[in-house]
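Milestone 3.1: sequence recovery, worked example.
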């Protein structure tokens, strides 16, 4: 499903394409739509979804990951494959035996693993059968809980993983229990999901609700952008006049929209002393599937009243975007070149630059250098 980095069809062979219209560049791991940002924190679940003594299976970057929580409330992450006969450990149970502490018991032969991945017992062993049980390990992953969310560190070398050298991102306004959560799996590589998410021009065509906008409401926009930690932001501004939904908040709302690697996009709206945070978390399940989770927090009184309508709107947006992804896949299966233009597709180019710099800086053992500069982008939507 990747797109080749070739000259656009309307560019003569051997002539460099102009900056205003260029083919999608090759990514750092083969091509756009291939590979992942590694040595990074990925969102897995809300903290409330991981209850005590639970064993939950997730797939992240094509790897099966068990997320569990001990009876004491500690969270852990293990590769969800028993090294004996490959049964998923998440199909087993959490047990507490004297001398072993809490362990994950495989459903196939009862092998038990501590929450750090070390084997604690093999029930089939007889006396005198000297097997160094502790030498057998299941791969463990660094895991953090932050702002009511669970994040897993996905290393570049899973067999020799590095320890996290940073903490998960912090999001302004993510305080207390979220008021609204919706999610959907897109049949898309995360690269296409990110580019679609940050695309400023598709709204009037894909999202045609009366309360949002339409082709008739399109007009030129100019927005200032600036670099942020591992990403960029459309700096705080008054919402566009044709974005009708903002008007229900009253007052004079000001919003800032931020993107950060590997796949976080949030809009922080300030209305006087009140705020709304709309956070979108992208988790690559595998090369062909990305989970989109949208979480909202707000202390604005309008939010409580409008919650049923907002939930319906968010679900509609996700299904419309998901439907467009399916249509896009009809073209992507022929591996066509993708023509990106400035300024509407500038953020797509930025994403590729960030991804390339991230992987290059990790490989070279140096600090990340954000390639994005302050600028103003113009487009119609």
């Amino acid at each position: 499903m990747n797109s080749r980095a070739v000259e656009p069809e309307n560019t003569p062979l051997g002539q460099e394409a102009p900056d205003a219209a260029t083919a999608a560049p090759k990514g750092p791991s083969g091509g756009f739509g291939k590979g992942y940002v590694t040595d990074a924190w990925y969102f897995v679940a809300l903290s409330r979804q991981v209850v005590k003594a639970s064993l939950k299976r997730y797939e992240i970057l094509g790897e099966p990951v068990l997320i569990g929580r001990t009876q004491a409330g500690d969270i852990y992450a293990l590769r969800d494959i028993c090294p004996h006969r490959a049964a998923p450990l998440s199909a087993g149970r959490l047990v507490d035996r004297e001398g072993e502490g809490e362990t994950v018991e495989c459903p196939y032969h009862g092998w038990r693993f501590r929450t750090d991945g070390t084997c604690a017992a093999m029930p089939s062993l007889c006396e005198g059968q000297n097997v160094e049980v502790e030498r057998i390990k299941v791969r463990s992953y660094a895991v953090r809980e932050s702002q009511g969310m669970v994040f897993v560190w996905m290393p570049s070398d899973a067999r020799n993983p590095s320890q996290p050298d940073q903490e998960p991102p912090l999001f302004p306004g993510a305080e207390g229990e979220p008021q609204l959560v919706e999610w959907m799996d897109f049949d898309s590589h995360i690269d296409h999901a990110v580019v679609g998410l940050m695309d400023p021009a598709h709204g009037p065509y894909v999202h045609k609700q009366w309360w949002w906008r339409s082709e008739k409401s399109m007009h030129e926009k100019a927005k200032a952008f600036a670099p942020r930690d591992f990403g960029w932001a459309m700096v705080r501004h008054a919402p566009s006049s044709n974005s009708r939904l903002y008007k229900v908040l009253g007052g004079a709302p000001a919003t800032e929209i931020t993107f950060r690697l590997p796949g976080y996009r949030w809009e922080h709206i300030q209305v006087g002393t009140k705020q709304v945070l709309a956070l979108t978390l992208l988790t690559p399940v595998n090369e062909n599937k990305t989970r989109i989770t949208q979480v909202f927090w707000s202390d604005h009184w309008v939010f409580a009243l409008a919650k049923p309508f907002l939930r319906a709107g968010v679900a509609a947006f996700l299904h419309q975007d998901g439907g467009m992804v399916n249509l896009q896949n009809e073209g992507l299966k022929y591996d066509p070149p993708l023509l990106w233009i400035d300024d509407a597709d500038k953020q797509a180019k930025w994403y590729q630059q960030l991804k390339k710099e991230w992987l290059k800086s990790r490989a070279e053992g140096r600090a990340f250098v954000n390639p994005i500069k302050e600028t103003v982008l113009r487009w119609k939507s």
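The longest strand covers residues 274-286. The CA atoms of residues 195 and 328 lie 12 Å apart.
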